[in-house]
Amino acid sequence: MTDNAVEKRPLSVLGLGAMGTALARTWLAAGHPVTVWNRTTARTEPLAAEGATVAASAAEAVAANDLVVLCLLDDASVGEVLADADLTGKDFVNLTTGSPGDARGRASWAAERGARLLDGGIMAVPPMIGVPDSGGYVFYSGPRALFEEHRDTLAVPTGATYVGEDHGFAALHDVALLSAMTGMFAGIHHAFALIRKEDIAPKEFAALLADWLVAMAPMVRTTGDRLESGDYTTGVVSNLAMMVSGNTTMLRTADEQGVSPELLTPYMALMARHLEEGHGEEDGTGVIALLTR
Ligand code: FVH
């Protein structure tokens, strides 16, 4: 059977911002019948020109298909948009960014209304959608059988990575990765601030910094290994005592360069506390325990 002969699942997409539009466009291009709805109707026009059916209301878009994708601003907007819709028997895929608590609450809310729900956390920006090998993907969580039922359709716009039955896990994975990224950008911005007033070309420095971050990336896996084994000392190449000592040099350098250390000091304070508690021979993994309440 050729690809063209495979029946493409019809679906509705609610929310045609930058991401919702990219998603809907990709499903359309792949031959899926797509019904769209957006609060601001003008945003439906390009997709209508590409073959989408435009629903007059969110309730109509939900009624049109059994599979309904939500890509709205936040969890509150999901509640508003679906307030008047009959959700009975529908399968929702909620790609709206939210917290794990939002996802769990929305899944219970949908179940009370007779619907099933998969939550998704999008690890991509709109230009990556529909681009093979872009590196983008979506974390999915919720009932595995529901994910398997829709896997082929969900894998059309970008990669689909299932992370568990707990509806909160997609959001948790999403936010955990974004949190790591935020910390990384904090370090990057501090580094650029240090060199900013010197005769150092930012572009040349950027290349050095990017290579350094790539060289350090395998440490992420080391941390995972140590958390699983509980062994924070075997084979440590840079121990906490040495790192805390190095922190004083980083802080003196910031002072010399007239740069605020405010992006670094909270983390350094935790490292110093862990050292004072007698963990100088460990690597930095033990700091994680200081964060969890
Ligand atoms: N764009 C990105 O780079 C990121 C990548 C990672 C995932 N995020 C999340 O995806 C959700 C949608 O993001 P988006 O980029 O499409 O966002 P916008 O372009 O701002 O579009 C927002 C849509 O939500 C509609 N909307 C907002 N509030 C309401 C409401 N109260 N009732 C009904 N619809 C609402 C909005 O409609 P309109 O302003 O066009 O009328 C857009 O369709 C999001 O969770 C990101 O965090 C994207």
General description of the model:
By secondary structure, the chain is of the alpha/beta class. It has two domains: 3-165, NAD(P)-binding Rossmann-like Domain (Rossmann fold), CATH 3.40.50; 173-291, N-(1-d-carboxylethyl)-l-norvaline Dehydrogenase, domain 2, CATH 1.10.1040.10. It contains twelve helices and eight strands. The protein has an eight-stranded mixed beta sheet with strand order 3-2-1-4-5-6-7-8, with helices on both faces. Strand 1 (11-14), helix 1 and strand 2 (34-37) form a beta-alpha-beta unit. Helix 10 packs antiparallel against helix 11 (265-276). The longest helix is centred in the middle third of the chain and has 27 residues, at 169-195. The chain is elongated, with a radius of gyration of 24 Å. The chain starts with 10 loop residues before the first strand and ends with a helix. The structure holds ligand FVH. Ligand FVH binds next to helix 1 and helix 4.
- What value does the Rg take, in angstroms? 24 Å
Number of domains: 2
Form type = elongated
Output the CATH topology of the largest domain: Rossmann fold
Roughly how many Å apart are the termini? 55 Å
In this entry the ligands are: ligand FVH
How would you name the CATH homologous superfamily of the largest domain?
NAD(P)-binding Rossmann-like Domain
Q: H/E order of the elements?
A: EHEHEHEHEHEEHEHHHHHH
Portion of residues in beta strands equals: 5-15%
Q: Could you name the CATH class of the largest domain?
A: Alpha Beta
Helix/sheet category: alpha/beta
H/I helix tally: 12
Total beta-strand segments: 8
Q: What's the average pLDDT?
A: 96
Helix proportion of residues, in percent?
40-55%
Which CATH-level-2 architecture of the largest domain?
A: 3-Layer(aba) Sandwich
Uncertain spans, ≥5 residues at pLDDT below 50?
none
Taking the sheet with the most strands, its summary is: 8 strands, mixed
Major sheet: order of its strands? 3-2-1-4-5-6-7-8
